[in-house]
User: Fold this.
Amino acid sequence: MLAGFVALLALGFVATRGDAQPNTMKLIAPGVWFREGDLVNQDHCNNVIIEMKDYLIVVDANFPSGARLALADAKKVSPKPVKFVFDTHHHGDHTYGNAVWTGAGATTIAYQGVAEEMKRYEPARWKMAMKQRKDVADMHRDSVEPPQQTFTDSPHVITDGTRRVEFYHFGWAHTRGDGFLYLPQERVLCSGDAAVNGPYNFTGDGNIGNWPKVLDGALQLKVDHVLPGHGGAGGKEILTGQRAFMIELHKAVQQAVASGKKLDDLVKKSNGKQVASLQLPDSVKNWVSADSLPDQVKDAFNEVTTGKPAGDLPH
Ligand SMILES: [Zn+2]
Ligand SMILES: [Zn+2]
Assistant:
């Protein structure tokens, strides 16, 4: 017990959130594993590994270092090769490992909007990440490797007779390219960052006003398991809670604007730190943190006052 604990400490596996289990694999359904990424120390996203008859499908490429960890864990659960890696959206923590996977023989696949977002934001973000992350710098590339296959149909379907895999796009929530992976038989939904389980929402490329509608689309599916891009696995409550958070955020900012409040009234500087002065109801507290709320309020404020999605505004 003690030896195990010391080993965990030595590896940096220190949970800072109640139920976070970074770098662990959890069996969700037969042949479906959820791998929780180390968000706190390495900014890794979660991965999902899906076993088909002759090969594996992995959800999200992760950062290069996360890709290597997920690939090593995939090898532990199955001798089958990784054939497809699905990029849920264009962010670096979900796609910068693309070349690691293709180098190992996999094909990267995404909704067409992911490739379009990359054209919009890259290579600027890749170049920035190279300065901040050794694993990105060590790729010795000028930019992210775009997904090799893109689709525009929704659902886009892959099946091999043993399992049916459906890829959906329900519109613009976290990014213009948000894709979902759904296993209808197992009622498993991989939501990327369109639905996260915790205070991990980045709204800078997003469309807060439209976000709930995207989740309405996801909620049309029969879902027992939701495997989010960040935070632990759960059920449908991740979708409904995330939806409620976006509605409450938008509503609170809208009401503040209607009562004449300015951005400076809603986000204040205190000891060089941003502090949001508005409160969201306790029912959505799983998605609220003092660190992330100020930027979310700012993005919502800009949407409400300009009538444009946050991601359409200069940023
Ligand atoms: Zn993201
Ligand atoms: Zn992410």
